[in-house]
Design brief:
The structure holds two protein chains of two kinds.
Chain A (H helix, E strand, L loop, with lengths): L1 H26 L1 E8 L6 H20 L3 E2 L5 E5 L2 E3 L4 H12 L3 E5 L4 H9 L17 E3 L14 E3 L4 H15 L5 E7 L3 H17 L3 E8 L7 H10 L3 E5 L2 H13 L6 E4 L6 H7 L7 E4 L6 H12 L6 H20 L8 H14 L2 E3 L4 E4 L5 E2 L3 E6 L2 E6 L4
Parallel strand pairs in A: 1-3, 1-4, 1-5, 5-6, 6-7, 8-9, 8-10, 10-11
Antiparallel strand pairs in A: 2-3, 12-16, 13-14, 14-15, 16-17
Helix pairs in contact in A: 2-10, 2-11, 3-4, 5-6, 8-9, 11-12
Chain B lengths: L1 H25 L7 H18 L4 H23 L4 H21 L4 E3 L2 E3 L12 H4 L4 H23 L2 H11 L1 H6 L4 H27 L9 H14 L4 H18 L5 H17 L12 H4 L18
Helix pairs in contact in B: 1-6, 1-9, 1-10, 1-11, 2-3, 2-4, 2-9, 3-9, 6-7, 6-9, 10-11
Classes of the chains: A alpha/beta, B mainly alpha.
Pfam families (chain B): BPD_transp_2
InterPro entries (chain B): ABC_transp_permease, LivM-like
Protein name (chain B): ABC transporter permease
Chain lengths: 399, 310
């Protein structure tokens, strides 16, 4: 009788322990935090990133979460901090994230936040004389070229605009042999749009033999573009390239329609290949051609886009990066053996950094993304154009 | 901990910006040029350390002096106008400075890299602090040392004849002139002092964010600069500090969790605060420590109030 009681008690105890362990395993969490502009003029980018990250982490958690070094499973929990596209706030937000148990951060939205933010981080890993912040950041949206090289703790999954526009203008040269002149319009006070025109589009157009017949500048907050478009009309270009975000792109396109400026080809900025452009000026944007690293061209991309819409966002090249970052981080966490304990936090962050640095390629929604030694990415892309109120794939250079 | 120390850094540089406007406001002038002086300080100090390898201390002093010199030059013509005209004139100056840096490209070779302002792309790699082994707390202590020195100097000035002169001009220009005060000298003096403080603040700001660009120094920053002393009250330097803590600490950082609603609430809370405390959070007259702790003789609530003769 005594023996039976002891065995029963032992069994109960063992089962309780097993149940408690299982419960504890299910309770294990890994925090990956997003940050960027989710309010203000460019707030839509942050809102879409939030939706994409939430959708991606929900998918990961529904499939069992991430596997930690000890073989246990952990759920990924996330939240999103708004920096209002302000450098000071961005730095404050990252310091706040680094002071929590977050393993890695995804963000920021704005290049003018990314640049100072990356500057406060340790420039070269293991350089003990550099007291910069040591915390891995995996950028989804801020796309201005060459920023990841500022710090070894920074990685970006943004497409290479230099490669995209070089290919685009080369393709335009082949498909529009009669087009010889180009006019550039640039949103001058935004780091990304400015750099994209002067350093990327202009260079690519020149390389492929297009003669620049004029340039017009405006500001992000401008609402009147009559002078700029008048200059455009006088120049009579074959191609008009608009390096601006959706808000002023639509303003310029409406003014072009009003002044009946009808170039043979309209080229837009990567960030304008979004729903905002179509909801703002679908008719005027008809034919606008843009290279983008996201289009729902395969089952995986379509499923991801639907999941993001279900979270209240839209999938575009920026939010697609946020989705991909979540998936890439899951792989890295499992590959490098993250322990996921409070004691191992610093070590885990370093493992994430080293894991991202060691990656040579990563799966993406349109195919394999090449990871560069400087922390940048070269992603597959397609050319889309606005047609009947939607974005339609015009050409797939990878096909 | 670094997060709170980083916040303290933001409080520090914004306090300097607010104090630069406070000095000018004491003379009754509303200057929207402080963001311009702040920008001049930021670019100058950034150039001193990143391009010419100077130590941070001389760099920010030079930045302050350059800003002060320009403030003095700007002060002569600008302060001959009053009220709204002065606001417009100083706003125009601020925009002029911003557009100057928007177009300024001046880079030098340093350790194999091109360093310096690069037009609209901004001025990158102002990394004096991390490159010289300064931890976050070192930077915070440094900033607050400067803030305390500036606040102390202004607090002391407020208790001397110079402070009385500034306030006299601010209260009633005609009366001040009638007792022989040179209004232009007083106003330009205040503008110069404000320029110096803004230059110091801008110089430190550039080093805390490591990258500066023209867009930061726009109308919004100029509005913040005058909002701090007005919201805090002109009674003492502490009003500006309280307002910085209220705006940067509570409205911006404290309400971050509110997302989109934060920006809406931001304006509403400032309007509410101004309605509840129309003379600023600390009022027009500085609270005295003796009175706060119940020591010392009772004082009339308004030192300027008159008593009827018996």
């Amino acid at each position: 009788m005594k023996l039976k009681a002891l065995v029963a008690a032992g069994l109960v105890g063992a089962s309780s322990l097993a149940l408690a362990t299982a419960a504890a395993a299910q309770d294990k969490t890994i925090r990956i935090v997003g940050f960027g502009a989710s309010s203000g003029v460019v707030g839509i980018f942050g809102q879409n990133s939030t939706a994409a990250m939430s959708a991606a982490f929900e998918k990961i958690n529904a499939e069992g979460g991430v596997t930690l070094a000890d073989g246990s499973q952990a759920r990924i929990v996330t939240e999103y901090y708004d920096d209002r596209c302000n450098a000071e706030e961005g730095i404050s937000v990252l310091r706040r994230i680094a002071s929590t148990d977050a393993l890695v951060a995804i963000g920021p939205t704005c290049s003018n936040v990314a640049e100072p933010l990356f500057g406060i981080m340790q420039a070269r890993v293991d350089d003990e004389s550099d007291t910069g912040l040591q915390f891995p950041v995996f950028t989804d949206v801020a796309i201005k070229g060459g920023l990841a090289g500022i710090s070894d703790w920074v990685f970006r999954n943004t497409p290479s605009e230099a490669a995209m526009y070089d290919e685009l203008f080369g393709w335009l040269r082949e498909t529009h042999p009669d087009a010889t002149t180009i006019f550039g319009g640039v949103e001058e006070d935004f780091a990304h749009s400015r750099a994209s025109w002067y350093d990327v589009m202009k260079t690519a157009a020149d390389k492929h033999g297009f003669e620049l017949v004029g340039e017009a500048q405006w500001l992000l907050s401008d609402t009147n573009f009559s002078n700029q478009v008048r200059g455009m009309r006088r120049a009579e270009p074959d191609i008009v390239a608009i390096s601006a975000h959706p808000f002023t792109t639509c303003g310029v396109l409406r003014e072009m329609a009003r002044q009946r400026v009808e170039p043979e080809v309209l080229v837009g900025l990567t960030s304008s290949s979004s729903l905002e452009t179509l909801s703002g000026c679908a008719t005027e944007a008809e034919g606008l051609t843009i290279p983008t690293s996201f289009a729902p061209v395969n089952d995986e991309a379509r499923a991801a886009a639907e999941a993001v819409v279900a979270e209240g966002g839209q999938m575009d090249l920026h939010s697609a990066s946020a989705w991909e970052n979540a998936m890439i981080l899951k792989d890295v966490i499992e590959q490098v053996g993250v322990e996921g304990t409070a004691e191992s936090l610093e070590e885990d962050r370093r493992k994430i950094r080293d894991g991202l640095a060691a990656m040579e390629s990563a799966p993406g929604l349109l195919g394999t993304n090449q990871r560069m030694p400087d922390g940048e990415a070269v992603k597959p892309y397609v050319f889309v154009h606005a047609r009947d109120g939607g974005w339609e794939v015009l050409h797939n250079p990878g096909s | 901990m670094d997060f709170y120390l980083g916040l303290a850094q933001i409080f520090g540089v914004h306090t300097l910006l607010g104090l630069s406007a406070y000095v000018v406001l004491l003379t009754g002038q509303v200057s929207m040029a402080q963001a311009g002086f702040y920008a001049i300080g930021a670019y100058t100090a950034g150039a001193m350390t990143a391009m010419f390898g100077l130590h941070i201390l001389p760099a920010i002093v030079i930045a302050g002096l350059v800003s002060a010199a320009i403030a003095c030059i700007v002060g002569f013509p600008a302060l001959r106008v009053k009220g709204l005209m002065l606001v417009v004139a100083t706003l125009a100056f601020g925009e002029m400075v911003r557009l100057f840096f928007f177009n300024l490209t001046w880079q030098v070779e340093r350790n194999g890299d091109r360093v310096g302002p690069n037009g609209a792309e901004g001025f990158r790699s102002i990394r004096y602090f991390p490159e010289n082994g300064w931890e976050v707390w070192h930077v915070t202590v440094f900033i607050w040392f400067v803030v305390v020195v500036v606040m102390g100097a202004l607090w002391w000035m407020d208790r001397t004849r110079a402070g009385a002169v500034l306030r006299a001009v601010g209260h009633d220009e005609t009366a001040a002139q009638s007792i022989g005060l040179n209004l232009t000298a007083v106003k330009v003096g205040a503008m110069t002092a404000g320029g110096f403080i803004a230059g110091l603040g801008g110089g430190i700001y550039a080093h805390t964010v490591t990258h500066i660009e023209h867009g930061v120094f726009g109308v919004l920053l100029a509005t913040f600069a005058i909002a701090y002393p007005i919201l805090g009250g002109l009674g003492s330097v502490f009003g500006t500090l309280i307002a910085v803590l209220f705006i940067q600490g509570f409205l911006i950082e404290g309400l971050r969790f509110m997302g989109e609603w934060r920006s809406l609430l931001f304006g509403a809370l400032i309007v509410l605060a101004m309605n509840l405390r129309p003379h600023g959070l600390l009022g027009e007259h500085a609270p005295r420590l003796k009175n706060l702790f119940g020591a010392g003789p009772a004082r009339p609530s308004d030192p300027l109030s008159t008593k009827e003769a018996k």
